[in-house]
Design brief:
By secondary structure, the protein is of the alpha+beta class. Helices cover about 30% and strands about 30% of the residues. It has six helices and six strands; from the N terminus they run ββαββββααααα. It has a five-stranded mixed β-barrel with strand order 1-3-4-5-6. A hairpin with a 5-residue loop joins strand 5 and strand 6. Helix 2 crosses helix 4 and helix 4 packs across helix 6. It is globular and about 55 Å long. About 30% of the residues are buried.
Length: about 180
């Protein structure tokens, strides 16, 4: 499928939610296309790549929106990761790419420290209610969901975060978070 692509310095994994402010005409066009078709792709802006596009992104749906004058606020939710190929740019400078779903982490067996990670994330959402408000139905029982939310909000470089986008990277992510968040 060919989808519009929005490069921003935002890292999202499946089921991740973020709020965007849209004001440029090309991205208002993107929102219109996304609402009529299959959403759009959010990817991290890559200064070194052709058309500043990395090889993958998060395929997102618009789940909420509001408007203040000329400014459109949209909440988006990642439904999967996708590879990006055949990147083009239209006359409005809006990027498009052929997108192919790529698998992320399979379902995990619970480990003793997973409940501790979930509790820590609950505390983060309580301390930062704007972040927690993005998830009216948090899934603290799903360790994939918990680990992905931590990876999205931790102050790590994109290069480090992308190490956790492969289907077989859960163990690395879990070990990393166990060390960083729990000190184990």
């Amino acid at each position: 499928m060919n989808l519009p692509v929005f490069p921003l310095p935002i890292f999202l994994l499946p089921d991740g939610v973020t709020r965007l402010r849209i004001f440029e005409p090309r991205y208002l066009k993107m929102v219109s296309i996304a609402c009529q078709q299959n959403g759009f792709v959010l990817c991290v802006y890559d200064h070194k790549a052709e058309l500043n596009m990395p090889p993958w992104g998060a395929w997102v749906d618009i789940i909420n929106f509001s408007q203040e004058g000329e400014l459109l606020h949209i909440d988006i939710k990642a439904k999967s990761l996708v590879s990006l190929e055949n990147i083009t740019m239209d006359e409005d400078q809006l990027r498009f790419a052929d997108c192919f779903e790529i698998p992320h982490w399979p379902t995990q067996n619970k480990q003793p420290h997973h409940a501790q990670l979930a509790t820590k994330l609950q505390h983060v959402f309580e301390e930062y209610p704007d972040q927690g408000a993005l998830y009216p139905e948090p899934n603290f029982d799903d360790i994939n969901w918990v680990c992905a939310r931590f990876l999205e909000i931790l102050p790590l470089s994109f290069e480090k975060k992308q190490l956790f986008t492969k289907a077989d990277s859960f163990t690395k992510a879990d070990d990393f978070l166990k060390t960083i968040i729990l000190g184990q």
